[in-house]
Amino acid sequence: MLKCEIISVGTELLLGQIANTDAKFISEMLTSLGIDVYFQTNVGDNKSRLLECLKIASNRSDIIILTGGLGPTMDDLTKETVAEFFGLKLVVDIDTKIKIESYFKKSMREMTQNNYKQALFPEGSKILPNDNGTAPGCIFEKNGKKVVILPGPPSELIPMFNNYVYPFLKSLSNDIIVSRVIKIFGIGESKVETMVSDMLLSKNPTVAPLIGNGFVTLRITAKSDDVQKAKKMIDDIEVSLRKIFGEYIFGVDDDTMESIVLNLLKDKGSTLSTAESCTGGLLSEKITSVPGASEVFKFGAITYSNESKENILGVSGEIIRRHGAVSEETAREMAMNVKNISKTDYGLSITGIAGPSGGTIAKPVGLVYIGLAYKDEIYVKKLISNGNRDKVRLNSAMHALDMLRRHLTGLKIDY
């Protein structure tokens, strides 16, 4: 089994000025190829420290992929350092030199002498063209190690990897890795992990819990020499997971809660309107992020103040004064009234205290009421969410969508 190590070069990564999305992308691609990634390293623009990283990587990995440090300035030292470590000369690639000169000529920019540095490569390298910048990458083999050097900007790295590196690496591995993500809402991560503790010990396929954007995911990964065999292994695990979690599974792979809900509304020919307070339009934003949402989503109101709840939605001032804006009674009126005003089949409302201030002993920060109106029926769910303001808002929007999902599929709505 091939082992790969990723070394990301750039002081800006260590300072937290940019996120290392390159390593994430490369790891995902390597996983799909059946190549194991056991180590990722970030190192600054420093020759001695990069040499140390290369020494460690060459002792434990078959493939070393480096990103960044291919620019024309003095601190761009990846190729020079790699060449020194492997005892290779840096040689000029004529085609790259001509392309760099042409690039500057077409953009009508002055080319300085240090730009020619980007045409230098370790001797014996296969050059990887850069169709989106001036810094090509390269691949070479030395001392039984396969070394890949890529530019740092994702807009350059990703197409270069897809077009040239992926086919090269694919030729090295006979294993096929297939993954599937099962998405669960309504059960916390720790409980999910406990419920599948035996499955987490499996080596092939593997089952790994992850926290998603307001939900929990279980990633099933199978390794085989045949795609259909791998898929069959995953299918068997998914069947077992569905027996365990049942109605709490809302989607698979690229499904989102909002896409599932909108597809259910479309299938039933139903329409939806929303009225939001503490979420400030987050629920509507989630819904409208799905292409084709306009077929079913007809109206969204952000009624943040008491006055707007009364004037726009027609919520009774007496109800607000007696029970408060954050109450079951207000959530009921918001849901029913927005449904009636917009003449939709469903009305969905959220009112609560997102924090960090504004809570009381009786109504603490994180208290949220969600209302769902359908025909003459009104359901209200009370939540107490922990976490910061963003987490309270996200959790509220997800629970609102899940309430609607459950009603559309005939499942019991948790109160």
CATH homologous superfamily title of the largest domain: MoaB/Mog-like domain
Number of helices: 14
CATH architecture of the largest domain: 3-Layer(aba) Sandwich
| Proportion of beta-strand residues | 15-25%
Strand arrangement across the biggest beta sheet: 2-1-3-8-7-6
Shape: elongated
Structural class, from helix and strand content? alpha/beta
Question: What structural keywords apply?
Answer:
415 residues; alpha/beta; Molybdenum Cofactor Biosythetic Enzyme, Chain A; 3 domains; 6-stranded mixed β-sheet; 5-stranded mixed β-sheet; 39% helix; elongated; Putative competence-damage inducible protein; Competence-induced_CinA; MoaB/Mog_dom; CinA
Helices and strands in order:
Blueprint: E1 3-9, H1 11-14, H2 21-32, E2 36-43, H3 47-60, E3 63-67, H4 78-85, E4 90-92, H5 94-106, E5 120-122, E6 126-128, E7 137-142, E8 145-150, H6 154-170, E9 176-184, H7 189-195, E10 206-211, E11 216-224, H8 227-245, E12 249-252, H9 257-268, E13 272-276, H10 282-288, E14 297-302, H11 306-311, H12 317-323, H13 328-342, E15 346-352, E16 367-374, E17 377-384, H14 389-408
Parallel strand pairs: 1-2, 1-3, 3-8, 13-14, 13-15
Antiparallel strand pairs: 4-5, 6-7, 7-8, 9-11, 9-12, 10-11, 15-16, 16-17
